[in-house]
């Protein structure tokens, strides 16, 4: 697929596969890299455990940083996709110009703020006296490369939304692949320890950034990066659409911190640390499922926003059905694999029999409702792509709230182990709720779009 024209003309089923598979692959490789990265850090001689803990403390902060790229990338790409569907090239170009400006401004502001506040942030997110030096080293180097991280993350959405999923996939693969290759060279070959891991990450992000920018400044894309046409109205529109996925991503870290607190409190001195370790392993496994799910639902938003802009209601509905079908096939396969392969995954992290048994149980518990979760992901991202970000945000916040409440209540009544059931409880209830809300809203919302005068768009 080479041009955006395909978004409005190509058969929906093949179009969904063309966008979903590369995006899903890219997300999977990205998560796989993160896991391998932690494995390398954990094997640093003498202080591998402390270095891994330090990198773990930086994880939520790094997620918070990159979520600003998602804020602009999703909000801007959806807005641009709608304008392209309306055949309004000038407005689409304006959206990309304003998005590029925002990414630049956020990069500078975040770099300065995080460098000034990193010591306090690290202590707030769980650094100890022993792990602080490692966490501080990693975060300082990573923060210096904020510009490249945000640009690589944010600009990739604009590549995908113009109908170039393979290019978008390569943007991610270049960074992840280089990181996997450079990590052992800098960590072990140059004996740089955790600073080597951070430097490898920044170099990889620079390469991804250069690739994405070169493509969007080039001649192959219908809508290129330009300068000028800056508008506060356009910026507000981008931020309003991107705020929902931004908040979802930014608060994920807080959920993990809350879960660790609950496990430590109710697990006590005898089991707290063990439960947290097993939860970390289980959450790493869950990312191998949920990140490709994000790739499927997020990577196909371009189809929805483009055809929504073009008022092709039937193509929007057909796309949602096909996206859901792909998602259900993927989650069903992963659910079945989760019954058989968890032990092999856990062995990558630990050889302790107690840890292995509990981690395998935790993974199987976490994935109990992974198939119904397909509806939550597809419908929430679908609503966001169709200019209903507030509804999508409300549904996402509901899921996170259910998780927090379930973890607190279950552990207080049935002990720390019961907190692991918070995931399937939240997934099951929120998926049912999202399905009902989507079915009640979608026809009315699409019909309203068809009646909307062109001048109001």
Please report the total strand number as a whole number: 0
What is the approximate shape? globular
Largest sheet: none
Structural class category: mainly alpha
- Secondary-structure element order, as H and E? HHHHHHHHHHHHHHHH
- Helix content percent band: over 70%
| Total number of distinct structural domains | 1
Give the N-terminus to C-terminus distance in angstroms: 28 Å
Question: What proportion strand?
Answer: under 5%
Uncertain runs are none
Query: What's the tally of helices?
Result: 16
What is the radius of gyration computed over CA atoms, rounded to a whole number of angstroms? 22 Å
The average pLDDT is 88
Question: Could you walk me through the main structural features you see in this protein, from its secondary elements to its overall organization?
Answer:
It comes from Blautia difficilis. Its main location: membrane. It is a multi-pass membrane protein. This is Multidrug export protein MepA. It is found in: Cell membrane. With 457 residues, the protein is mainly alpha-helical. The chain has one domain (6-456). Helix content is 83%, strand content 0%. It has 16 helices and no strands. Helix 9 (232-299) runs antiparallel to helix 14. The protein is globular. The protein starts with a helix and ends in a 6-residue tail after the last helix. The mean pLDDT is 88.
């Amino acid at each position: 697929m080479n041009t955006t024209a395909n978004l409005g003309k190509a058969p929906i089923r093949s179009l969904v596969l063309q966008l979903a598979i590369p995006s899903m692959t890219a997300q999977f490789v990205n998560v796989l890299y993160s896991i391998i990265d932690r494995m390398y850090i954990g094997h640093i001689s003498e202080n591998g455990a402390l270095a891994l803990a330090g990198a773990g403390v930086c994880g939520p902060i790094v997620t918070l940083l990159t979520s600003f790229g998602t804020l602009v990338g999703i909000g801007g790409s959806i807005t641009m996709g709608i304008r392209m569907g309306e055949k309004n090239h000038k407005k689409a170009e304006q959206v990309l110009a304003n998005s590029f400006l925002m990414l630049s401004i956020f990069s500078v502001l975040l770099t300065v703020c995080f460098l000034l506040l990193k010591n306090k942030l690290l202590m707030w997110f769980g650094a100890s006296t022993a792990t602080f030096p490692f966490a501080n080293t990693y975060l300082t180097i990573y923060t210096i490369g904020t510009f490249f991280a945000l640009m690589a993350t944010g600009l990739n959405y604009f590549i995908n939304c113009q109908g170039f999923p393979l290019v978008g996939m390569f943007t991610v693969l270049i960074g992840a692949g280089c990181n996997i290759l450079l990590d052992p060279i800098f960590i072990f070959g140059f004996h740089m320890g955790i600073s080597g891991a951070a430097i490898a990450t920044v170099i990889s992000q620079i390469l991804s950034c250069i690739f994405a920018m070169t493509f969007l400044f080039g001649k192959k894309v219908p809508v290129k990066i330009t300068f000028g046409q800056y508008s506060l109205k356009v910026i507000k529109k981008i931020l309003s659409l991107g705020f929902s996925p931004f908040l979802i991503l930014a608060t994920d870290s807080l959920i993990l911190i809350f879960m660790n607190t609950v496990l430590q409190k109710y697990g006590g001195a005898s089991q707290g640390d063990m439960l947290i370790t097993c939860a970390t392993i289980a959450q790493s496994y869950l990312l191998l499922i949920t990140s490709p799910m994000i790739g499927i639902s997020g990577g196909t938003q371009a189809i929805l926003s483009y055809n929504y802009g073009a008022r092709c209601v039937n193509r929007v509905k057909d796309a949602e059905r096909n996206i859901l079908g792909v998602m259900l096939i993927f989650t069903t396969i992963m659910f079945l694999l989760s019954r058989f392969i968890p032990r092999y995954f856990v062995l990558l992290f630990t050889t302790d029999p107690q840890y292995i048994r509990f981690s395998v149980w935790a993974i199987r518990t976490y994935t109990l409702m992974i198939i119904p979760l397909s509806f939550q992901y597809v419908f929430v991202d679908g609503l966001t792509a169709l200019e209903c970000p507030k509804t999508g945000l409300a549904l996402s916040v509901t899921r996170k709230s259910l998780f927090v409440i379930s973890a607190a209540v279950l552990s207080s009544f049935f002990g720390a182990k019961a907190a692991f059931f918070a995931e399937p409880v939240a997934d099951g209830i929120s998926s049912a709720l999202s399905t009902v809300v989507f079915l009640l809203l979608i026809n009315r919302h699409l019909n309203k779009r068809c009646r909307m005068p062109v001048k109001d768009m």
